[in-house]
Amino acid sequence: MSAPAAQPRLEPFRLRGANFNLLVLRLLDARPEVIVPAIGDQFRRAPGFLRNAPIVIGLDDLAMAPHEVDFATLAAELRAIQIVPIGTTGGTAELKAAAQAAGLPPLRTAGGKEEDVPTAAPASAPAPQAPATPEPPPLAPGTARPTMVVDTAVRAGQRIWAQGADLIVTGTVNAGAEVIADGNLHVYGALRGRAIAGGADNTDARVFALHFDPELVSIAGYYAVREGLTEAPIGKPVQVRLIGESMRFDKLG
What we know:
Layout (H helix, E strand, L loop, with lengths): L22 E4 L5 H14 L7 E6 L12 H10 L2 E7 L3 H9 L45 E4 L8 E4 L3 E4 L8 E4 L3 E7 L2 E4 L9 E6 L3 E4 L2 E4 L12 E6 L2 E6 L2
Parallel strand pairs: 1-2, 2-3, 4-6, 5-7, 6-8, 7-9, 8-10, 9-11
Antiparallel strand pairs: 10-13, 11-12, 13-14
């Protein structure tokens, strides 16, 4: 007797909301012949940085008219160097509309509302507006930020992300590894890989390392690669913080 046929699943897929740690490429000049070679230069300084990474294109600092920006060519040339633009943030309504026409929709931040983009819908039949998601409440006084603790070394090719939390690594972060914290990042061994703090635009976040020798260090989207750390005390205990839009490297102790 043949076995009964397997019953098909009633649900072929499910949708769920999720938060992701994404880098924002803030455009100061949108010409592909300017921006793409500059990013390629960063690839040579920090191998693996941004490669195959999804990024959001920031338009707030772009002082160009929509007709002056070739979003389609920019997106195609970024993909050609293995960067994946998935959308935009900020900018004027006209810039957002031009980007969306090239397949780069405006994105909203977690807890934020959808950005307004002009549409061709008739004025007599406007699309209904979804209620904005309320902002998460601030931490109550005396409430500590959650912390993720990693008690082992972080190997090359490994990525660890402390979502909404500080991150403490008690061992070494090896070259080719990546550690990310939405809050502060503490490395109590050698920091030789990529270190990213303030992943949720937290400009008050800091990076602490007992042996500072990273491939790349970043706070709230501002970053420096190894060759650019000429003023940092390499191999020493270091605290990294932002002063305005510049990184400051202070010896610990």
